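Subject: mismatched residue count in predicted assembly?

I count 995 residues in my input, but I want to confirm that the predicted structure covers every chain. Input:
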Amino acid sequence: MSIRQFLSRFDVLLFGGAMMLAFLGILGVYSASLHGVVSSAFSRQLVWTGLGLVLCFIVFSIDYHYLVDYAFHIYVLSLLLLIGILIFGREINGSKSWLSIGGQNFQPSEVVKVVVILTLTRYLSGLSDDYLKRQSFFILSGIAMLPVCLVVLQGDLGTALMYFPILGGMMLIGGLKFRFVAAVMALALLLAPASWLVLKDYQKQRIMVTFDPSLDPKGIGYQTRQSQIAIGSGGLLGTGIGNGLQSQLGFVPEVHTDFIFALLSEETGLAGACLVLLLYLFVLSRMVRIGEQARDRQGILIITGVASLIFFHVVINVGMALGITPAIGIPLPLLSYGGSSALSTYVALGLALNVHYHRFVY
Amino acid sequence: MPIFQDNRRLVARIKGLRTCFFLIFLLLFGKLWYIAVLKAEYYKELAKQNQVRIIPMLAPRGIIFDRQGRVLVDNVQSSNLVLFLDKAHDLNRVFNFLRGLNISEEALKERMHVARSRSRYQNVVIKENLSMEEMSYVLAHQNEHPELAIVEEPRRLYRYGPLAAHALGYTGEISDKQLKWTEFVGHHQGDIIGKSGVERTYNPNLTGIDGQRRLLVNSMGRTIEELQSVDSTPGDNLTLTLDLDLQQIAETELGDDPGAVVAFDPVRGDVFVMASHPAFDPNMFATRINRADWARISSDTENPLQNRVIQAEFSPGSTFKVVMAIAGLETGVINQNDTVFCPGGVTLYGHYFHCWKKGGHGTVNMTQAIRQSCNVYFYLLGQKLGIDNIEQYSKRVGLGHISGVDLASEADGLVPSQEWKKKTTGDKWYAGETISVAIGQGAMNVTPIQLARAVGMIATGQEPSLHLIKEAEGYRGPATAVAATTTAPFFKEEHLRVVRDGMWRVVNEFGTGRGALVEGFEVCGKTGTAQTIGNEAKKTLSAEEASKYADNAWFVGFAPRDNPEIVVCVIVQRGKSGGGRAAPIAGKIFRAYWEKKHPPVGPPMPSPLQQVASNAPESPQPASPTNGGGIRQ
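Triage response: the counts match. Full output below for your records.
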């Protein structure tokens, strides 16, 4: 196959958009590491990006049909991994969801999300109807809920929450009937008070403070407020990389991970913030296009899962930085520092590219 | 997997997903626009408040010296604990932390209440003059409390505590009322100003120009960088005419008795001594005075804040007789050789007026009458002069009017007159009242400085222009302060000589003022023992009340007789006897002045004077010998 042939089948636009985001992320982490906020983050982020790209191409190079065929096997292995971590894992910041490999900490629950996408695809693609039956609904929910329960038990509620948009997105595309949607919403409303009992105090606080930041100006609301100040004071073109006082002087917390959007907004201004959002919109839009052109149902469903995953991460994270969603520690895909998040995003990206590459039956 | 699936519905749904993405992203863009465009200025301001800490650098006030260049008032650096209100998010945490410094929540709240009312700086001084232990306590917890900072500020130090407190005055934060005064134009809320004494009169000179430090701080309150600083410019130094040695003698001699001493050069107008007791320690005001201290000072019935030299009005008593004498001679109603027979009292207008000496003084002429302070002589002189003449000559020597010394809030005193009586009571003046006024009783009221100035005029024949300021570097105040004494002759020299002769006899010829005698210094003077309550009322008093209304002791005099150099006026309230209590104090001052001018020959002996002076503290700990309060540490 010539390079030209390869490029005609490869989605250069999607890959290019993703790489631009990765570049902005590296820029942000570089800035955050300049003044000793997290000095080693920059070099590590480069390593993670490299590893991610390798993983991305491995996933890309295996026809997604094979991956879907073996989805159940991978799924079972993943559940065993999660259980293993629950027993032998390492606890960081109150979550026993970490695996230590060669001194690097890694969160498998991030990557298991992609496995769930494949598993749901495997099950959904086996159905020939355009609408889901009740039985299918429960099976699909079960597939997603098993890892969710394990992740919740690990104490990582934020990551667990991110399984829901995958499930929801894929069920909707797979043909969820309206009455199911209504039933789920009713159930959610019923369970909401119950969840209040399960949530830890700081988690409840985070939700409340989103609605009223003045509840706790120094605590949870403080983070959001400082992030808003950073975004608001950046001006049109920003202060320049490394010069954002809000971010560099420690007023905005976690500038290299959860609040990297605030740092980029302050240092590259409204222009930079808009560029980030437009790039995400472009990437997502491109993925939807891949879905439209996909060869089969499996391709459409994979794309749905991947797009939902990225979309919700972006909305929750940027929404938190802007102060419209609760402060849940969710990384910004491709931008935030962090190995697990990077790897799972690159695997997801690899899947999307894979679906595009195999859109024609040759 | 089925061989063929119709995916058109799925494709349609996924297109719906794209619409959903777009709509929700629109929301994100909307909020981004709101924050970064619509509210950009607001957030920029918040960012600045976050990151930039403005620390005022208070300019030290000018140093105040006595006439020999000895430091009376200067400044020490005080490490103050400052709370930045805009950074204090959790006050309860601050309160808890400050308990470690023994600062109560109430005291802190009181200060914050005051600070909240202003906007210039968002900081409150919580505690002045931190000790090393307190500073290390704060610094050790700086990371947990970025809202606190230690700021160096100059604090006023009155080296001798309450010494000359009223002349020097005190400083304090400008009040809301004072902000509106033209006197303090250009001052802002929170500024330290001179509130009384020379601190107030020469406030424009003493006040420096405040500087400012702008610091870039991180979220822990730690300084990252100094942005731009404007150094403060200290205020101008002042040299006063006060003489520390004489002042110390006056204050020591007054002791715990309420009273006042003033001494000055009647030719140049230099005020050497201005003492008023009870006094206060102005160091108490140098830090922000707390309520309890303020309540104690301001509710003291002896009124320690009052400068008795210029603000307290007393009956002059017999000291007024020197004014009567000059009036008698000038008007010609009496000749210096005219004599009066004093049998111990005289009946005038149907009322018997006592002389203080039961047996009477016999036949006395003017100088003898002055020497023995014979009441009968002056009753009769008063009768001859009449109230109009008494009023006219009293006012000529400056009674009933402020002396014009360079201090604010001087009292006028009172010279009674027909017009005054009519105005205040609606009644006409009775001739009998003139008789009381003739011996300095009745409605006649003077401040010590007025009386001293009147005697100064008799001593020199000239009107002195009194002032506390000797020189000011780069003086910016009113030009009249150091004006020369006017030279227009007031009275005939021969008349003045008669009165001076009488006053010389008072001291040097076993008169009532012999306590003020200084060998070789030709002291002239007049004593007075002034009633503070009418004779009739006095009889009804209990023993305790009687001591409260005991007579005031006066002495006013000058030296030497020819070409006088110094006027001294002493009043000891409830001192009972002018000759017994006031004259010796004046004598000590005359003697000290004389000895300073004529130092004893031979090996220098440490005089009591120098010992007092050497007791002056070298360390910046203010002395507070009479006031137990001291500054709060």
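The domain at 307-465+490-598 of chain B is CATH 3.40.710.10 (Beta-lactamase). Marking this ticket as 'not a bug'.
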